[in-house]
Specification:
By secondary structure, the chain is an alpha/beta fold. The protein is about 35% helix and about 20% strand. The protein is built from 14 helices and 20 strands. The strands form five sheets. The chain has a seven-stranded mixed sheet with strand order 12-13-14-11-10-16-17, sandwiched between helices. A six-stranded mixed sheet has the order 7-6-5-8-9-19, sandwiched between helices. β5, α5 and β6 form a beta-alpha-beta unit. α2 packs across α6, α3 crosses α4 and α3 runs antiparallel to α6.
Amino acid sequence: MSEFEVLNPATEEVVEVVALASADETDAAVDRAARAFPAWRDVAPGDRARLLRAFAGKVDEHLDELAALEVRNAGHPIGQARWEAGNLRDVLHYYAAAPERLAGRQIPVPGGVNVTFAEPLGVVGVIVPWNFPMPIMGWGMAPALAAGNTVIVKPAELTPLTARRVGELALEAGLPEGVLQVLPGAGPVAGRRLVDHPDVRKIVFTGSTRVGKEIMRACAPGVKRLTLELGGKSANIVFADADLEKAAATAPYAVFENAGQDCCARSRVLVERPVYDRFLELLEPAVRGVAVGDPRDGKTEVGPLISAAHRDRVASYVPDGAPVAIRGSAPEGPGFWFPPTVLATPDFATLPAWHDEVFGPVVTVVPFEDEADAYRIANDTPYGLSGSIWTRDVGRALRASRAVEAGNLSVNSHSSVRYWTPFGGFKQSGLGRELGPDALDAFTETKNVFIAAD
């Protein structure tokens, strides 16, 4: 067993030294989950729903504790951290209603009737990233549990603390031992073993496209079920007829929230050329007004980056001589800080920050000529996760929504992710759909049975 020093990103102080599971310990967790599965599968739907509601209630009781823990572990501003803990609670409540509604179908056929059953898969591994530890844990864990699967959550090495506490709360709520386990561990060790283990029937992974491809290859020999939510390089398209004031005021939060560490970040802003200069004028005070600072302060909107290594990576996209149009502020001294930064140049195609997922508070603003040009630029990326469209023309909004190759779009808003609607990406941004009323389909197999009438 190895150990990992968990740091507070705002102070660089050690919060805790966490033991990381070995491959053998991962195997033991899978064995516990496999042994717990038959009894959990057979829990009556109403009782499973009651337990999930109790779990949600425990999260709610400890919401402030979880939020404070996330502030120390991930550097998230306290207001954001409270929202994240509340999202976990709400997702558990939402899927607590599912077990009693997990119905099959009756299909008339000659000579009898066919019936279908939605059967749980078995052991599900949920591999969680460091950028949104609580919500993303809930998005995979809650529907999997509701469908009757047992779950092993492997949090990121950098941010294991809230996941570990949530696992304790599940036991306090009455979930049986082995039904939900939280296993801190390194990706190449514990994560890889979950992917390779023959008794793990499905993997839910959120993270980089590079690692997602590796997991997809590793799942292929056993035809292991897989859901991937991967990288993004989303476009924020502003047409000349849009409410420019609102679009400019909103744009910083579409990319700088969570310090830009968001796969849905709208990090490419496309502005129709006649209003390009005016948009930049309106954008400047909005960027400079973003409150970057101590995440414990309720007024803070943006905290630090997750680590020194990640800060260096983000900084590499804004080298000396980069076309910086607007730069916000960030604290000096300890902490992995980086100021909100806007790049603007007609030669945007040469910028690595235009093509790559920076995963930090860096956005590029470029002009476009017309609708066709906007769609061409927006779709010129291997990613297709999210995006926004700003226009007062309803017809154009509908055309753009069909033309932009992304799984989650919003019109005149930067918000498109809700736990009661489908979530997932196009192209190299993912595989499968999480969330929404059909999420349990991803955690069940359809069994078809013919019953002869004579």
